[in-house]
Design a protein that fits this description.
By secondary structure, the protein is of the alpha+beta class. It contains 23 helices and 11 strands. The chain has 3 domains: 143 residues, Tetratricopeptide repeat domain (Serine Threonine Protein Phosphatase 5, Tetratricopeptide repeat); 207 residues, Beta-clip-like; 157 residues, no CATH class. The chain starts with a helix and ends with a helix. The chain binds S-adenosylmethionine (SAM). S-adenosylmethionine binds next to strand 3, helix 11 and strand 8. One of its GO terms (molecular function) is histone H3K4 trimethyltransferase activity.
Amino acid sequence: MKESEHQQQEETLQQLRLKANELLLREEWSQSIQTYSHFISLCQTRPDPKHRKSLCLAFSNRAEARSKTRDFDEALKDCDEALKIENTHLKTLMCKGKILLNQDRYNMALNCFKIANLDHPSNKDSETLNGYLEKCKKLEFLSRSGAFDISNWVLSGFKGKLPELAEYIGGVEIKKSEISGRGLVATKNIDLGSLLLVTKAVATERGIMPESKTDDLGENAQMVMWKNFVDKVVESSSNCKRTHCLISMLSSGENEESLEVPNIAAFRPESEQDFGFSNEKIDMGGMLNILDVNSLVEETFASKFSGKKGDYHGVGIWLLASFINHSCNPNAKRFHIGDHVIVHASRDIKEGEEITLGYFDVFSPLKTRKEMAKNWGFDCHCKRCKFEVDISSKHEMGEIEMGYEIGVDVGTTVYKLEESMKRWMVRGKMKGYLRASFWKVYSELFVSEKLMRKWGRRVPTMEVVVDSVVEAVGGDERVLRVVVEGMKRNGGGGLGEMEKVMKLGRGVYGKVMKKQAMRSILS
Ligand SMILES: C[S@@+](CC[C@H](N)C(=O)[O-])C[C@H]1O[C@@H](n2cnc3c(N)ncnc32)[C@H](O)[C@@H]1O
């Protein structure tokens, strides 16, 4: 190359570098990515050892800009290019560590921060670096042990910093389900309240929704929220091959029996194994079907505890949780904190048993549940539905249901149902199923001193009803509230009663909340 040409190229490179840096400082991410790309390709067409340092920095800066646009796959590739040139480049190690941490790959992130710390022990960012090191260690421990504790947050009235949560998979695997398609199945005996999984959303969208969702304003708000949510999922999926592949494994509601059963290890963010992820594109129609079948409405912890939903609504998609089927006698519960969903056992679960959630309110009568399942796009064939379909052919059952619908007094409904169950010789869990279906009237009766004075001797005690309901369909905040009120009426209850309430609470809120926090919200 002639001297003048060489000089001109040097000038062009210098200008591109300055321009790209300026764009980066101005946070004009796309433009700066373009300019760094130009700089990098020029450097690579005519390699010159004296450009190594600037090339390393260009890759590093492009990685930063790409991570800001959430293009994490490409950003990580850039980090690796920069580290090939200078394997302890501080800025790149920090950038790579932060991306990996964001992707919940704690060990790999920890490794980056460790190298950075070893090679640059007294850099100006050492405090930040130490912060990241500690965070990675803590999350890695939580992810391995499942030792989450949200008690301080609960005790603070759900205010302040959200509790630290990490990806966690308990004793479960994905298997063919007897209910439909694939499901999550317990790999060991799991006791009440134990964690089953904690996982972060691919995307969420939240907003304040007007009270009525049926008028124009409400419908419009709902549509805008859904559109924003779909856009976010599409963006996450196109920016990360792994996310794209995992989403493509989810059910679109059709031909579930022919769907492949993926290895649960594929859902561990840290796993580097190649699970044969296909590159199959998901068209927009397919994506909408998948989101329709698998998206969940957030059940925030605070709303669960207070029983009030308010105007605040959130929707999201959580990959592994999408494999959990519905049952009207579920054995698990979920709640959401920040972007995480936490699923715990709401009853004792035996090895080999399928983990199930109530997609909708299972404390409602068969007819209402059938309508809700229809809205979800399926016909529920769980044990409880089968039993209740049989019973509903009985004449008295029709009368009881009718009475319930038109609001016959609650004592009469409970009395009639209990007497009918005796005649039909309904036993064990089946009693709990029917009592859960009519929980609304049972709870109204148990909390009213006046009604209990009238009906108390003719119907089973609250303890008997609660035990059978919880055994059949698991605990619920509403059951817990009735029990706590009953205990208060009886002057606070003894140790045994308190122990029972705590057990019920463990089923409702899980073991992530320790005794002191549970006591505080119950009192
Ligand atoms: C979130 S997915 C659950 C996992 C799904 N079975 C799979 O193979 O990926 C929800 C879909 O599973 C099916 N499903 C879940 N619970 C069911 C039930 N109790 N009865 C029938 N189908 C059910 C329905 O097709 C529903 O739309």
